[in-house]
Automatic annotation (TrEMBL):
EC nos: 5.4.2.2
InterPro entries (alphabetical): A-D-PHexomutase_a/b/a-I, A-D-PHexomutase_a/b/a-I/II/III, A-D-PHexomutase_a/b/a-II, A-D-PHexomutase_a/b/a-III, A-D-PHexomutase_C_sf, A-D-PHexomutase_CS, Alpha-D-phosphohexomutase_SF, PGM
Protein name per the record: phosphoglucomutase (alpha-D-glucose-1,6-bisphosphate-dependent)
Protein family membership: Belongs to the phosphohexose mutase family.
NCBIfam families: PRK07564.1-1 (NF005737)
Catalysed reactions, as listed in the record: alpha-D-glucose 1-phosphate = alpha-D-glucose 6-phosphate
A GO CC term assigned to this protein in UniProt: cytosol
Cofactor: Mg(2+)
Organism: Sagittula stellata (strain ATCC 700073 / DSM 11524 / E-37)
Gene Ontology molecular functions: magnesium ion binding; phosphoglucomutase activity
Residue segments, region Disordered: 1-22
GO biological processes: carbohydrate metabolic process
Signal peptide range in chain numbering: none
Amino acid sequence: MTPVTKPISPFEGQKPGTSGLRKKTRVFMQPGYVEAFVQSIFNAIGGCAGKTFVIGGDGRYFNAEAIQTILRMAAASGAARAIVGQGGLLSTPAASNLIRVRGADGGLILSASHNPGGIDEDFGLKYNISNGGPAPEGVTAAIFDQTKTLREYYTLDTDDLDLSAIGETTLGGMTVEIVDPVTDYAALMQTLFDFDAIRALIADGFTLRFDAMHAVTGPYAKTIIEGMLGAPEGTVLNGVPSVDFGKGHPDPNPIWAKPLVDMVMSSDGPDFAAASDGDGDRNMILGKGVYVTPSDSLAVLAANAPLAPGYARGLAGVARSMPTSRAADRVADKLGIGAYETPTGWKFFGNLLDAGKATLCGEESAGTGSDHVREKDGLWAVLLWLNILAKRKMSVKDILLDHWQTYGRDYYSRHDYEAVDSAVAEGIMGDLKALADGPLPDGIQKIDSFSYTDPVDGSVSHNQGMRVFFDDGARAVMRLSGTGTEGATIRVYLERYEVPDGDLTNETQDALAPIAAAVDELTGLKERSGRTAPDVMT
Ligand code: G16
Protein backbone atom coordinates (compact mmCIF):
# COMPACT_ATOMS: atom_id res chain seq x y z
CA MET A 1 0.00 0.00 0.00
CA THR A 2 1.56 3.29 -1.10
CA PRO A 3 1.71 6.17 1.37
CA VAL A 4 -0.04 9.34 0.23
CA THR A 5 1.53 12.74 0.77
CA LYS A 6 -1.00 15.48 1.55
CA PRO A 7 -0.34 19.21 1.68
CA ILE A 8 -1.24 21.04 4.87
CA SER A 9 -1.00 24.56 6.30
CA PRO A 10 0.21 25.00 9.89
CA PHE A 11 -2.42 25.57 12.61
CA GLU A 12 -1.90 28.34 15.15
CA GLY A 13 -1.40 27.44 18.78
CA GLN A 14 -0.44 23.76 18.68
CA LYS A 15 1.82 24.32 21.67
CA PRO A 16 1.80 21.46 24.17
CA GLY A 17 0.92 22.68 27.69
CA THR A 18 1.39 21.12 31.12
CA SER A 19 0.37 17.76 29.70
CA GLY A 20 0.24 17.66 25.90
CA LEU A 21 -2.08 19.56 23.60
CA ARG A 22 -5.52 20.25 25.07
CA LYS A 23 -8.21 22.08 23.12
CA LYS A 24 -11.93 22.09 22.59
CA THR A 25 -13.00 18.92 20.78
CA ARG A 26 -14.27 20.89 17.79
CA VAL A 27 -10.79 22.41 17.40
CA PHE A 28 -9.31 18.90 17.15
CA MET A 29 -12.09 17.91 14.72
CA GLN A 30 -11.08 20.53 12.12
CA PRO A 31 -9.90 18.79 8.96
CA GLY A 32 -6.15 18.24 9.18
CA TYR A 33 -5.76 19.35 12.81
CA VAL A 34 -4.90 15.95 14.30
CA GLU A 35 -2.81 15.16 11.23
CA ALA A 36 -0.77 18.35 11.64
CA PHE A 37 0.01 17.69 15.29
CA VAL A 38 0.76 13.99 14.81
CA GLN A 39 3.05 14.64 11.82
CA SER A 40 4.83 17.28 13.91
CA ILE A 41 5.38 14.67 16.64
CA PHE A 42 6.72 12.16 14.13
CA ASN A 43 9.04 14.76 12.56
CA ALA A 44 10.26 15.94 15.96
CA ILE A 45 11.25 12.43 17.05
CA GLY A 46 13.19 11.73 13.88
CA GLY A 47 10.53 9.77 12.01
CA CYS A 48 8.76 6.48 12.62
CA ALA A 49 10.74 3.99 10.55
CA GLY A 50 10.88 0.62 12.29
CA LYS A 51 9.43 2.01 15.52
CA THR A 52 6.84 0.60 17.92
CA PHE A 53 4.19 2.86 19.42
CA VAL A 54 1.57 2.31 22.11
CA ILE A 55 -1.69 4.05 21.23
CA GLY A 56 -4.82 4.49 23.32
CA GLY A 57 -6.96 6.95 25.17
CA ASP A 58 -9.62 7.52 27.78
CA GLY A 59 -12.51 6.77 25.45
CA ARG A 60 -13.86 10.28 25.25
CA TYR A 61 -15.73 11.64 22.23
CA PHE A 62 -13.45 11.58 19.12
CA ASN A 63 -11.04 9.06 20.74
CA ALA A 64 -11.84 6.34 18.21
CA GLU A 65 -11.61 8.62 15.15
CA ALA A 66 -8.28 10.15 16.23
CA ILE A 67 -6.79 6.70 16.79
CA GLN A 68 -7.68 5.62 13.23
CA THR A 69 -5.96 8.76 11.89
CA ILE A 70 -2.84 8.10 13.97
CA LEU A 71 -2.68 4.46 12.88
CA ARG A 72 -2.84 5.37 9.18
CA MET A 73 -0.15 8.02 9.61
CA ALA A 74 2.17 5.78 11.64
CA ALA A 75 1.85 3.03 9.03
CA ALA A 76 2.46 5.49 6.18
CA SER A 77 5.61 6.72 7.92
CA GLY A 78 7.06 3.23 8.26
CA ALA A 79 6.30 2.29 11.89
CA ALA A 80 6.78 -1.43 12.51
CA ARG A 81 4.14 -2.00 15.19
CA ALA A 82 1.29 -0.27 16.96
CA ILE A 83 0.06 -1.70 20.25
CA VAL A 84 -3.50 -0.48 20.77
CA GLY A 85 -5.83 -0.96 23.72
CA GLN A 86 -8.98 -2.89 22.81
CA GLY A 87 -11.68 -0.49 21.71
CA GLY A 88 -9.03 2.25 21.71
CA LEU A 89 -9.01 2.32 25.53
CA LEU A 90 -5.92 2.61 27.69
CA SER A 91 -5.62 4.45 30.97
CA THR A 92 -2.63 6.79 31.05
CA PRO A 93 -0.71 4.72 33.64
CA ALA A 94 -1.51 1.50 31.75
CA ALA A 95 -0.19 3.09 28.54
CA SER A 96 2.98 4.10 30.40
CA ASN A 97 3.37 0.54 31.65
CA LEU A 98 2.84 -0.95 28.18
CA ILE A 99 5.48 1.34 26.68
CA ARG A 100 7.91 0.07 29.31
CA VAL A 101 7.13 -3.65 29.33
CA ARG A 102 6.96 -3.88 25.55
CA GLY A 103 10.09 -1.77 25.00
CA ALA A 104 8.15 0.58 22.72
CA ASP A 105 9.75 3.71 21.30
CA GLY A 106 6.93 5.90 22.52
CA GLY A 107 3.21 6.32 22.87
CA LEU A 108 0.39 8.58 21.76
CA ILE A 109 -2.19 9.06 24.51
CA LEU A 110 -5.53 10.63 23.74
CA SER A 111 -7.04 12.37 26.72
CA ALA A 112 -7.94 15.71 28.21
CA SER A 113 -7.67 14.02 31.59
CA HIS A 114 -10.12 15.43 34.14
CA ASN A 115 -11.72 17.86 31.66
CA PRO A 116 -15.23 16.93 30.48
CA GLY A 117 -15.69 15.07 27.18
CA GLY A 118 -18.10 15.56 24.28
CA ILE A 119 -18.29 17.45 21.01
CA ASP A 120 -18.56 20.76 22.89
CA GLU A 121 -16.10 19.82 25.62
CA ASP A 122 -12.40 18.98 25.62
CA PHE A 123 -9.96 16.71 23.83
CA GLY A 124 -6.23 16.17 24.12
CA LEU A 125 -3.25 14.36 22.68
CA LYS A 126 0.19 13.87 24.17
CA TYR A 127 3.35 12.04 23.29
CA ASN A 128 5.19 9.85 25.80
CA ILE A 129 8.80 8.79 25.34
CA SER A 130 10.40 5.35 25.65
CA ASN A 131 10.68 5.48 29.46
CA GLY A 132 6.86 5.62 29.49
CA GLY A 133 6.71 9.21 30.69
CA PRO A 134 5.42 12.43 29.16
CA ALA A 135 7.79 14.02 26.67
CA PRO A 136 10.14 16.41 28.44
CA GLU A 137 10.25 20.10 27.55
CA GLY A 138 13.03 19.65 24.97
CA VAL A 139 10.81 17.28 22.99
CA THR A 140 7.60 19.29 23.36
CA ALA A 141 9.47 22.40 22.19
CA ALA A 142 10.72 20.49 19.12
CA ILE A 143 7.14 19.35 18.39
CA PHE A 144 5.87 22.92 18.66
CA ASP A 145 8.62 24.11 16.28
CA GLN A 146 7.50 21.52 13.73
CA THR A 147 3.87 22.65 13.97
CA LYS A 148 4.87 26.12 12.80
CA THR A 149 6.46 25.11 9.52
CA LEU A 150 4.68 21.90 8.57
CA ARG A 151 3.78 21.69 4.88
CA GLU A 152 2.74 18.05 4.35
CA TYR A 153 1.80 14.86 6.09
CA TYR A 154 1.78 11.18 5.18
CA THR A 155 -1.12 8.78 5.42
CA LEU A 156 -2.78 5.79 3.78
CA ASP A 157 -6.07 5.66 1.90
CA THR A 158 -7.60 2.79 3.88
CA ASP A 159 -10.78 1.94 5.72
CA ASP A 160 -10.95 2.08 9.51
CA LEU A 161 -9.60 -0.93 11.39
CA ASP A 162 -11.81 -2.93 13.72
CA LEU A 163 -10.30 -2.29 17.17
CA SER A 164 -12.78 -4.44 19.07
CA ALA A 165 -11.10 -7.85 18.72
CA ILE A 166 -7.91 -8.80 20.54
CA GLY A 167 -5.21 -10.05 18.18
CA GLU A 168 -2.95 -8.94 15.35
CA THR A 169 -3.73 -7.43 12.00
CA THR A 170 -1.75 -5.38 9.49
CA LEU A 171 -2.09 -1.89 8.11
CA GLY A 172 0.23 -1.28 5.17
CA GLY A 173 3.55 -2.64 6.41
CA MET A 174 2.70 -2.08 10.10
CA THR A 175 1.50 -4.73 12.52
CA VAL A 176 -1.41 -3.58 14.66
CA GLU A 177 -1.67 -5.52 17.90
CA ILE A 178 -4.86 -5.06 19.86
CA VAL A 179 -4.41 -5.91 23.53
CA ASP A 180 -6.59 -6.18 26.58
CA PRO A 181 -6.08 -2.80 28.30
CA VAL A 182 -6.18 -4.25 31.82
CA THR A 183 -4.10 -7.47 31.81
CA ASP A 184 -0.53 -6.13 32.00
CA TYR A 185 -1.48 -3.35 34.38
CA ALA A 186 -3.26 -5.72 36.79
CA ALA A 187 -0.25 -8.05 36.72
CA LEU A 188 2.02 -5.14 37.67
CA MET A 189 -0.22 -4.14 40.59
CA GLN A 190 -0.07 -7.69 41.87
CA THR A 191 3.72 -7.51 42.09
CA LEU A 192 3.60 -4.29 44.15
CA PHE A 193 0.92 -4.92 46.73
CA ASP A 194 -0.07 -7.55 49.26
CA PHE A 195 -3.29 -8.66 47.57
CA ASP A 196 -3.81 -11.41 50.19
CA ALA A 197 -3.81 -8.85 53.02
CA ILE A 198 -6.22 -6.55 51.17
CA ARG A 199 -8.47 -9.49 50.29
CA ALA A 200 -8.53 -10.51 53.96
CA LEU A 201 -9.35 -6.95 55.04
CA ILE A 202 -12.32 -6.83 52.67
CA ALA A 203 -13.46 -10.35 53.61
CA ASP A 204 -13.39 -9.17 57.22
CA GLY A 205 -16.13 -6.63 56.52
CA PHE A 206 -14.12 -3.51 55.60
CA THR A 207 -16.36 -1.55 53.23
CA LEU A 208 -15.25 0.53 50.25
CA ARG A 209 -16.43 2.30 47.10
CA PHE A 210 -14.50 3.30 44.02
CA ASP A 211 -16.04 5.90 41.71
CA ALA A 212 -14.71 5.53 38.17
CA MET A 213 -16.73 8.61 37.14
CA HIS A 214 -17.88 6.92 33.87
CA ALA A 215 -14.28 7.08 32.69
CA VAL A 216 -11.48 4.73 31.77
CA THR A 217 -10.70 3.16 35.16
CA GLY A 218 -14.04 1.31 35.31
CA PRO A 219 -12.73 -1.91 33.69
CA TYR A 220 -9.47 -1.74 35.66
CA ALA A 221 -11.20 -1.27 39.00
CA LYS A 222 -13.75 -3.99 38.30
CA THR A 223 -11.04 -6.50 37.41
CA ILE A 224 -8.77 -5.63 40.32
CA ILE A 225 -11.03 -4.49 43.18
CA GLU A 226 -14.12 -6.60 42.57
CA GLY A 227 -12.38 -9.46 40.76
CA MET A 228 -8.93 -10.04 42.24
CA LEU A 229 -9.55 -8.50 45.68
CA GLY A 230 -13.04 -9.93 46.13
CA ALA A 231 -14.93 -6.71 46.92
CA PRO A 232 -18.68 -7.19 46.41
CA GLU A 233 -20.21 -6.29 43.06
CA GLY A 234 -21.34 -2.69 43.20
CA THR A 235 -18.15 -1.55 44.94
CA VAL A 236 -17.14 0.12 41.68
CA LEU A 237 -19.51 2.97 40.88
CA ASN A 238 -20.02 4.46 37.39
CA GLY A 239 -17.76 1.73 36.04
CA VAL A 240 -18.70 1.75 32.36
CA PRO A 241 -16.65 4.25 30.31
CA SER A 242 -18.76 6.58 28.19
CA VAL A 243 -17.75 9.14 25.55
CA ASP A 244 -19.11 12.04 27.61
CA PHE A 245 -18.41 10.58 31.08
CA GLY A 246 -22.13 10.47 31.79
CA LYS A 247 -22.20 14.21 31.03
CA GLY A 248 -20.09 14.70 34.16
CA HIS A 249 -16.80 16.28 34.95
CA PRO A 250 -14.41 13.36 35.57
CA ASP A 251 -12.30 15.23 38.10
CA PRO A 252 -11.89 13.41 41.43
CA ASN A 253 -12.20 16.28 43.87
CA PRO A 254 -14.78 17.26 46.50
CA ILE A 255 -16.66 19.42 43.99
CA TRP A 256 -17.01 17.06 41.05
CA ALA A 257 -17.21 13.85 43.08
CA LYS A 258 -19.55 15.34 45.67
CA PRO A 259 -21.94 12.35 45.85
CA LEU A 260 -19.02 10.17 46.91
CA VAL A 261 -17.91 12.71 49.51
CA ASP A 262 -21.46 12.94 50.86
CA MET A 263 -21.53 9.15 51.09
CA VAL A 264 -18.38 8.87 53.26
CA MET A 265 -19.50 11.77 55.42
CA SER A 266 -22.80 10.05 56.26
CA SER A 267 -23.11 7.87 59.36
CA ASP A 268 -23.63 4.67 57.36
CA GLY A 269 -20.97 5.48 54.76
CA PRO A 270 -18.17 3.08 53.77
CA ASP A 271 -14.83 2.84 55.61
CA PHE A 272 -12.94 3.95 52.52
CA ALA A 273 -13.78 5.57 49.20
CA ALA A 274 -11.79 6.78 46.24
CA ALA A 275 -12.29 8.19 42.77
CA SER A 276 -10.20 8.50 39.65
CA ASP A 277 -10.34 10.83 36.65
CA GLY A 278 -10.95 10.63 32.90
CA ASP A 279 -7.71 8.86 32.03
CA GLY A 280 -7.07 7.16 35.36
CA ASP A 281 -3.98 9.01 36.53
CA ARG A 282 -5.54 11.15 39.27
CA ASN A 283 -7.06 10.00 42.53
CA MET A 284 -9.05 11.22 45.49
CA ILE A 285 -8.82 9.41 48.82
CA LEU A 286 -11.59 9.51 51.42
CA GLY A 287 -12.16 7.70 54.69
CA LYS A 288 -15.27 7.57 56.82
CA GLY A 289 -15.81 11.21 57.80
CA VAL A 290 -12.60 12.50 56.26
CA TYR A 291 -11.16 13.86 52.99
CA VAL A 292 -7.42 13.37 52.52
CA THR A 293 -5.79 16.22 50.61
CA PRO A 294 -3.49 15.03 47.80
CA SER A 295 -0.54 16.66 49.57
CA ASP A 296 -1.28 14.79 52.80
CA SER A 297 -1.87 11.60 50.85
CA LEU A 298 1.62 11.79 49.35
CA ALA A 299 3.12 12.31 52.81
CA VAL A 300 1.17 9.41 54.37
CA LEU A 301 2.07 7.12 51.48
CA ALA A 302 5.73 8.07 51.78
CA ALA A 303 5.74 7.37 55.51
CA ASN A 304 4.01 3.99 55.13
CA ALA A 305 5.02 2.67 51.69
CA PRO A 306 7.39 -0.01 53.02
CA LEU A 307 4.30 -1.86 54.31
CA ALA A 308 3.69 -2.84 50.67
CA PRO A 309 5.97 -5.55 49.22
CA GLY A 310 6.94 -3.42 46.22
CA TYR A 311 8.42 -0.77 48.52
CA ALA A 312 9.67 -2.94 51.38
CA ARG A 313 13.24 -1.98 50.53
CA GLY A 314 12.43 1.64 51.48
CA LEU A 315 12.34 4.77 49.37
CA ALA A 316 15.23 6.45 47.59
CA GLY A 317 13.58 9.86 47.77
CA VAL A 318 10.29 11.73 47.45
CA ALA A 319 9.49 14.37 44.84
CA ARG A 320 6.62 16.85 44.76
CA SER A 321 5.62 19.69 42.50
CA MET A 322 6.41 23.11 43.93
CA PRO A 323 2.78 24.12 44.71
CA THR A 324 2.21 20.83 46.58
CA SER A 325 2.38 21.25 50.36
CA ARG A 326 5.64 20.60 52.15
CA ALA A 327 4.16 17.70 54.17
CA ALA A 328 6.13 15.11 52.15
CA ASP A 329 9.40 16.97 52.80
CA ARG A 330 8.91 16.45 56.53
CA VAL A 331 8.66 12.69 56.01
CA ALA A 332 11.72 12.64 53.75
CA ASP A 333 13.61 14.64 56.33
CA LYS A 334 12.79 12.18 59.08
CA LEU A 335 13.66 9.21 56.87
CA GLY A 336 16.91 10.88 55.83
CA ILE A 337 16.11 10.53 52.12
CA GLY A 338 16.10 13.05 49.26
CA ALA A 339 13.24 15.53 48.87
CA TYR A 340 12.82 17.16 45.46
CA GLU A 341 10.72 20.15 44.41
CA THR A 342 9.86 20.30 40.70
CA PRO A 343 7.64 22.53 38.55
CA THR A 344 4.03 21.47 37.95
CA GLY A 345 3.81 18.69 35.35
CA TRP A 346 4.52 14.99 35.74
CA LYS A 347 7.15 15.23 32.99
CA PHE A 348 9.51 16.86 35.50
CA PHE A 349 9.59 13.69 37.63
CA GLY A 350 10.85 11.49 34.78
CA ASN A 351 14.56 12.17 35.20
CA LEU A 352 14.41 11.78 39.00
CA LEU A 353 12.66 8.43 38.63
CA ASP A 354 14.97 7.20 35.86
CA ALA A 355 18.04 8.19 37.87
CA GLY A 356 16.76 6.36 40.96
CA LYS A 357 16.70 9.57 43.00
CA ALA A 358 12.98 9.47 43.77
CA THR A 359 10.72 6.47 44.37
CA LEU A 360 7.45 8.29 45.13
CA CYS A 361 6.16 11.47 43.47
CA GLY A 362 3.07 13.52 44.00
CA GLU A 363 1.20 16.68 43.17
CA GLU A 364 -1.50 18.73 44.79
CA SER A 365 -3.58 18.22 41.64
CA ALA A 366 -4.63 14.74 42.83
CA GLY A 367 -1.67 12.91 41.34
CA THR A 368 0.49 10.34 43.09
CA GLY A 369 2.73 7.68 41.65
CA SER A 370 6.01 5.86 41.89
CA ASP A 371 8.83 4.43 39.84
CA HIS A 372 6.60 1.50 38.72
CA VAL A 373 5.56 3.58 35.67
CA ARG A 374 6.36 7.11 34.51
CA GLU A 375 2.89 8.63 34.94
CA LYS A 376 0.85 9.33 38.01
CA ASP A 377 -1.45 6.46 38.77
CA GLY A 378 -4.89 6.74 40.39
CA LEU A 379 -5.62 3.08 41.03
CA TRP A 380 -2.07 2.48 42.28
CA ALA A 381 -2.62 5.13 44.98
CA VAL A 382 -5.89 3.47 45.98
CA LEU A 383 -4.21 0.06 46.24
CA LEU A 384 -1.29 1.43 48.27
CA TRP A 385 -3.75 3.03 50.69
CA LEU A 386 -5.66 -0.26 50.95
CA ASN A 387 -2.41 -2.14 51.56
CA ILE A 388 -1.50 0.30 54.35
CA LEU A 389 -4.98 0.08 55.90
CA ALA A 390 -4.79 -3.72 55.78
CA LYS A 391 -1.47 -3.70 57.63
CA ARG A 392 -2.06 -0.91 60.13
CA LYS A 393 -5.62 -1.93 60.95
CA MET A 394 -6.59 1.66 61.68
CA SER A 395 -9.18 3.93 60.07
CA VAL A 396 -8.16 6.51 57.47
CA LYS A 397 -9.04 9.24 59.95
CA ASP A 398 -6.81 7.77 62.67
CA ILE A 399 -3.92 7.26 60.27
CA LEU A 400 -4.16 10.90 59.26
CA LEU A 401 -4.35 12.15 62.84
CA ASP A 402 -1.44 9.95 63.84
CA HIS A 403 0.53 11.38 60.90
CA TRP A 404 -0.16 14.97 61.93
CA GLN A 405 0.73 14.19 65.55
CA THR A 406 4.06 12.90 64.33
CA TYR A 407 4.99 15.44 61.65
CA GLY A 408 2.66 18.37 62.27
CA ARG A 409 -0.07 19.41 59.83
CA ASP A 410 0.28 21.45 56.66
CA TYR A 411 -3.16 23.02 56.28
CA TYR A 412 -3.58 23.26 52.53
CA SER A 413 -6.07 24.33 49.90
CA ARG A 414 -6.09 25.36 46.24
CA HIS A 415 -8.45 28.09 45.04
CA ASP A 416 -9.17 28.22 41.30
CA TYR A 417 -10.51 31.20 39.37
CA GLU A 418 -11.58 29.71 36.06
CA ALA A 419 -12.09 31.20 32.58
CA VAL A 420 -10.65 34.56 33.57
CA ASP A 421 -9.86 36.95 30.73
CA SER A 422 -6.31 36.00 29.67
CA ALA A 423 -5.02 39.60 29.59
CA VAL A 424 -6.39 40.25 33.09
CA ALA A 425 -4.78 37.06 34.40
CA GLU A 426 -1.42 37.88 32.81
CA GLY A 427 -1.69 41.37 34.31
CA ILE A 428 -2.25 40.02 37.82
CA MET A 429 0.73 37.69 37.51
CA GLY A 430 2.95 40.37 35.98
CA ASP A 431 2.16 42.85 38.76
CA LEU A 432 2.92 40.24 41.41
CA LYS A 433 6.26 39.56 39.77
CA ALA A 434 7.04 43.26 39.78
CA LEU A 435 6.36 43.38 43.54
CA ALA A 436 9.13 40.84 44.17
CA ASP A 437 11.87 43.45 43.75
CA GLY A 438 10.23 46.34 45.56
CA PRO A 439 9.81 46.97 49.28
CA LEU A 440 7.62 44.16 50.60
CA PRO A 441 4.37 44.77 52.48
CA ASP A 442 4.32 44.03 56.22
CA GLY A 443 4.15 40.33 57.06
CA ILE A 444 5.76 39.17 53.81
CA GLN A 445 9.29 37.86 53.94
CA LYS A 446 9.95 37.12 50.29
CA ILE A 447 8.26 36.97 46.86
CA ASP A 448 9.95 35.09 44.03
CA SER A 449 9.36 33.39 40.72
CA PHE A 450 10.13 29.67 40.88
CA SER A 451 12.90 28.37 38.58
CA TYR A 452 13.95 24.75 38.44
CA THR A 453 17.29 23.25 37.54
CA ASP A 454 16.92 19.54 36.82
CA PRO A 455 19.52 17.79 39.02
CA VAL A 456 19.99 15.05 36.44
CA ASP A 457 20.43 16.81 33.09
CA GLY A 458 20.94 20.40 34.26
CA SER A 459 18.07 21.78 32.14
CA VAL A 460 16.52 24.95 33.53
CA SER A 461 12.81 25.91 33.55
CA HIS A 462 11.95 29.50 34.47
CA ASN A 463 8.66 31.19 35.41
CA GLN A 464 7.09 28.16 37.06
CA GLY A 465 4.89 30.10 39.47
CA MET A 466 5.08 33.02 41.91
CA ARG A 467 5.76 32.22 45.55
CA VAL A 468 4.86 34.44 48.48
CA PHE A 469 6.52 33.53 51.77
CA PHE A 470 4.99 35.04 54.91
CA ASP A 471 6.88 35.93 58.08
CA ASP A 472 5.06 33.24 60.09
CA GLY A 473 6.13 30.43 57.73
CA ALA A 474 2.90 30.33 55.73
CA ARG A 475 3.16 30.25 51.92
CA ALA A 476 0.99 31.20 48.97
CA VAL A 477 1.72 30.26 45.36
CA MET A 478 0.07 31.68 42.26
CA ARG A 479 0.33 30.36 38.73
CA LEU A 480 -1.71 30.05 35.57
CA SER A 481 -2.95 26.58 34.71
CA GLY A 482 -1.44 24.93 31.65
CA THR A 483 -4.33 22.53 31.07
CA GLY A 484 -7.36 24.78 30.61
CA THR A 485 -9.04 25.30 27.26
CA GLU A 486 -10.95 28.53 27.92
CA GLY A 487 -9.43 31.87 28.94
CA ALA A 488 -7.02 31.55 31.87
CA THR A 489 -7.38 29.65 35.11
CA ILE A 490 -5.62 31.34 38.02
CA ARG A 491 -4.57 28.88 40.68
CA VAL A 492 -3.88 30.11 44.20
CA TYR A 493 -2.28 27.57 46.53
CA LEU A 494 -2.46 28.30 50.26
CA GLU A 495 -0.47 26.60 52.98
CA ARG A 496 0.16 27.00 56.70
CA TYR A 497 2.05 24.68 59.04
CA GLU A 498 0.84 23.67 62.49
CA VAL A 499 3.22 21.91 64.90
CA PRO A 500 2.47 18.35 66.14
CA ASP A 501 1.10 19.48 69.49
CA GLY A 502 -0.78 22.45 67.99
CA ASP A 503 -4.37 22.76 66.81
CA LEU A 504 -4.56 19.95 64.26
CA THR A 505 -8.31 19.71 63.68
CA ASN A 506 -9.31 23.17 62.49
CA GLU A 507 -11.55 23.55 59.46
CA THR A 508 -9.13 23.95 56.51
CA GLN A 509 -10.65 27.07 54.94
CA ASP A 510 -10.86 28.77 58.34
CA ALA A 511 -7.21 27.96 59.01
CA LEU A 512 -6.20 29.48 55.67
CA ALA A 513 -8.58 32.46 55.51
CA PRO A 514 -5.94 35.03 56.64
CA ILE A 515 -3.54 33.90 53.89
CA ALA A 516 -6.27 34.03 51.23
CA ALA A 517 -7.13 37.55 52.40
CA ALA A 518 -3.48 38.60 52.28
CA VAL A 519 -3.15 37.33 48.68
CA ASP A 520 -6.25 39.23 47.67
CA GLU A 521 -4.93 42.39 49.25
CA LEU A 522 -1.57 41.96 47.57
CA THR A 523 -2.90 41.28 44.05
CA GLY A 524 -6.45 42.65 43.88
CA LEU A 525 -7.34 39.20 42.58
CA LYS A 526 -11.09 39.20 43.24
CA GLU A 527 -11.77 42.70 42.00
CA ARG A 528 -9.61 42.36 38.90
CA SER A 529 -11.01 38.95 37.95
CA GLY A 530 -14.54 40.12 38.70
CA ARG A 531 -15.16 37.32 41.18
CA THR A 532 -16.40 37.31 44.73
CA ALA A 533 -15.10 33.82 45.45
CA PRO A 534 -13.05 31.08 43.78
CA ASP A 535 -14.90 28.81 41.32
CA VAL A 536 -13.38 25.68 42.86
CA MET A 537 -11.70 25.05 46.21
CA THR A 538 -9.96 21.74 46.69
C1 G16 B 1 -1.70 17.55 34.40
C2 G16 B 1 -0.25 17.31 34.70
C3 G16 B 1 0.02 17.49 36.16
C4 G16 B 1 -0.46 18.85 36.63
C5 G16 B 1 -1.92 19.02 36.27
C6 G16 B 1 -2.43 20.42 36.56
O1 G16 B 1 -2.46 16.55 35.00
O2 G16 B 1 0.16 16.02 34.31
O3 G16 B 1 1.38 17.35 36.38
O4 G16 B 1 -0.30 18.98 38.00
O5 G16 B 1 -2.09 18.80 34.89
O6 G16 B 1 -1.73 21.31 35.77
P1 G16 B 1 -2.17 22.81 35.67
O7 G16 B 1 -2.13 23.34 37.08
O8 G16 B 1 -1.15 23.43 34.76
O9 G16 B 1 -3.57 22.86 35.13
P2 G16 B 1 -3.60 15.82 34.19
O10 G16 B 1 -4.21 14.86 35.16
O11 G16 B 1 -4.53 16.91 33.75
O12 G16 B 1 -2.91 15.17 33.04
